[in-house]
Structure formats: structure tokens, C-alpha cells
């Protein structure tokens, strides 16, 4: 089974790519969707213990949580320590489920793939990118987004140029949606012989170590 690691900084087109790959019939693990679910269920008690002001109607209110984090950015690490292990557990379960089913290819959407050094958990890394001015324009249009919140998120993400350098494939989403879809189609076409490339690389690495 080929595991595609989908990543990219905020507002770079990652969700658009994920939705399109699902349309192409590829199962997707969406980390953001999982976090939304956790904020309604498993993570409520733990998050509430650290951020009691973020709990509304027995759920984690993301807007109130963001406000608390903006006032005390150092607590982001505390939040990550609560949420990330739960997300990892669900991602591993998703991967194992499809491995047992014999699924040929899956996508795991991991916003902090590089930041959390999760590269070894995927076979192919696809980075979505866009010019800084396009990114900022998209971000500001999001409901509830402010310049302060964007700055906080941006500060905890690896520089886009670094991500592009570490990627196996990069897709620029600065053009029309149709152009992005065509680029994603080309990406999928290029994966036809990727398992063989992986095998050749592993064989070469083995030879070099012996």
C-alpha cells in the first residue's frame, strides 16, 4: 500500500487537494477533521483541564481556544501534547484498516508533517504551495481569522520554501481550480511506477550499507 503524505502551510490548498483526491477514489485521513471530532469527544476533558475557558456546552470551542492561545502562545505545546497523541492513534488505525483491506493507495493529510518529523510514516510527500500574497489573501477571508491568529499559526509552521525542498512532489495552487486539478492528475499519473522506485532505493541503500 502506498501512503501519500499530504502537507503544506495554512491556506496553501491542502484541503482542496484532499477533497479532489477523495473524488478520485483515494481514501483520505484528514487530521483537521479528526481534531474537530476530538474536540467534541475524547479531548474535551483533557483540554478543559488546561484551558477551562475553552469549553462551551461540553465541547472545545475553537474560537475561544484560539483567543486563549493568542494571549499565551507558549501553551500551544501543552495543547499539542494533549491532542497530537490522539491524532496519531487514529491515523495509525486508519492506515492499518486500509492495509488489512488491501487498499492500494491512501492519503494522510498531516499539516505538521515536517515540524513533527513524521516523514518516515509515509512513502511519498506531496506539498501544496502558493505565493505568500495568495496565502495571506486566502487566510484573511476565513471566518474568525485575524492577523494575530495567522501570525501565531505561521510562527509554528516550517517555512514554505523548506517544505518544498523536502517534498517528493510540489503543486502550486496559485491558478484556477481546474489547473490545480490537472496538476493533481499528473501527480497521480507519476505514481504508477513509484512502488518500484521505492524498492530500487531501498535495495540501493541496502547495498551501500553492506
Give your account of this protein's structure.
The protein is α/β, with parallel strands linked by helices and 210 residues long. It has one domain (2-193): Rossmann fold (3-Layer(aba) Sandwich), CATH 3.40.50.300. The protein has ten helices and seven strands. Strands 2-5-1-6-7 form a five-stranded parallel sheet, with helices on both faces. A two-stranded antiparallel sheet has the order 3-4. Helix 2 crosses helix 5. The longest helix has 26 residues, at 76-101. 23% of the residues are buried.
Task: Summarize the entry for a quick read.
With 210 residues, the protein is an alpha/beta fold. It contains 10 helices and 7 strands. The chain has a 5-stranded parallel β-sheet with strand order 2-5-1-6-7, sandwiched between helices.
Q: What can be said about the biggest beta sheet?
A: 5 strands, parallel
Determine the strand fraction and express it as a percent band: 5-15%
**Helix and strand composition category:** alpha/beta
Q: Going across the major beta sheet, what is the strand order?
A: 2-5-1-6-7
Quaternary state of this entry equals single chain
CATH homolog superfamily: P-loop containing nucleotide triphosphate hydrolases
CATH fold title: Rossmann fold
Q: In sequence order, what are the helices and strands, one letter per element?
A: EHEHHEEHHEEHHHEHH
Low-confidence parts lasting 5 or more residues at pLDDT below 50? Answer: 201-210
Amino acid at each position: 500500500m502506498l501512503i501519500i503524505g499530504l502537507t503544506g502551510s495554512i491556506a496553501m490548498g491542502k484541503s482542496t487537494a484532499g477533497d479532489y483526491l477523495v473524488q478520485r477514489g483515494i481514501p483520505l485521513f484528514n487530521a483537521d477533521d479528526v481534531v474537530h471530532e476530538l474536540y467534541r469527544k475524547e479531548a474535551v476533558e483533557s483540554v478543559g483541564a488546561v484551558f477551562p475557558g475553552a469549553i462551551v456546552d461540553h465541547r472545545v470551542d475553537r474560537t475561544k481556544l484560539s483567543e486563549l492561545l493568542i494571549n499565551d502562545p507558549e501553551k500551544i505545546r501543552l495543547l499539542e501534547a494533549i491532542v497530537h497523541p490522539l491524532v496519531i492513534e487514529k491515523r495509525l488505525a486508519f492506515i492499518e484498516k486500509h492495509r488489512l483491506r488491501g487498499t492500494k493507495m491512501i492519503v494522510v493529510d498531516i499539516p505538521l508533517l515536517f515540524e513533527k518529523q513524521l516523514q518516515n510514516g509515509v512513502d511519498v510527500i506531496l506539498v501544496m504551495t502558493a505565493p505568500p500574497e495568495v496565502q495571506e489573501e486566502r487566510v484573511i477571508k476565513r471566518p474568525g481569522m485575524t492577523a494575530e491568529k495567522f501570525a501565531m499559526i505561521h510562527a509554528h509552521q516550517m517555512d514554505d520554501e523548506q517544505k518544498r525542498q523536502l517534498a517528493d512532489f510540489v503543486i502550486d495552487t496559485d491558478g484556477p481550480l481546474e489547473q490545480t486539478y490537472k496538476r493533481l492528475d499528473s501527480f497521480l499519473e507519476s505514481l504508477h511506477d513509484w512502488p518500484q522506485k521505492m524498492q530500487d532505493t531501498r535495495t540501493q541503500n541496502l547495498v551501500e550499507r553492506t
